[in-house]
Amino acid sequence: MRLVPWQPDDMLRRLDDVVSVYGEAMGYRAELLQTRRGYIGAHVRRAGFRAVATLTTEGQLAGFGYGYASGPGQWWHDQVRSALDDAARQRWLSHCFEVVELHVRPSAQGHGIGARQLRALLSMADGSTVLLSTPEADEQRSRAWRLYRRFGFEDLLRDFHFPGDERGFAILGRGLPLTERVPAEGAPGIVGI
Ligand SMILES: CC(C)(COP(=O)(O)OP(=O)(O)OC[C@H]1O[C@@H](n2cnc3c(N)ncnc32)[C@H](O)[C@@H]1OP(=O)(O)O)[C@@H](O)C(=O)NCCC(=O)NCCS
Asked: Where is the N-acetyltransferase domain (predicted)?
């Protein structure tokens, strides 16, 4: 396995694989994936776009992560902004990187790839804070939650409802840069950046 930074065009070239990994990881239906495909294709052009991918030795996509500068006028940013008070907006949204997607193919999960991807993405990100949303779940049982907590993400909002989605989400954040040592150093067989 090797971890590589991706430029926007790298992501567009592998969009079928990206959507496939995303669908497998989240267990989403094909119709929803087509919509997400459109969003992802547009996201690569946003300011501050950063992406990483994990490739097998045969070049297959095992995982990916991406994000961009979060700002007014973006749907996600505006939803979160509207739910925060002035002090929280100032602290968290002034110069913020959003981790939009982070996924590992189920067959490759549990070997440190997700942590490696997150660490690499945050080391490339521009911002003084990083935010993300993740479905509410049992923190001890959810691999995503355990990963974010290990990286020091704290709660901004819990059981937050985005319009049109009946699931509750947590909005989590932490400061940048990643100054302290976070996990995922030395995962075997993975080349860092
Ligand atoms: C969340 C997700 C990205 C995490 O990726 P991952 O590769 O499975 O996560 P990691 O391997 O880095 O961490 C998983 C475990 O491996 C362990 N690990 C870390 N480095 C390791 C290594 N070098 N060797 C073996 N295990 C290692 C971690 O301690 C961790 O243990 P835990 O899950 O029991 O807490 C991935 O599971 C996923 O895509 N899930 C479904 C989609 C999803 O929830 N995405 C996030 C939505 S917001």
From this structure: 1-183
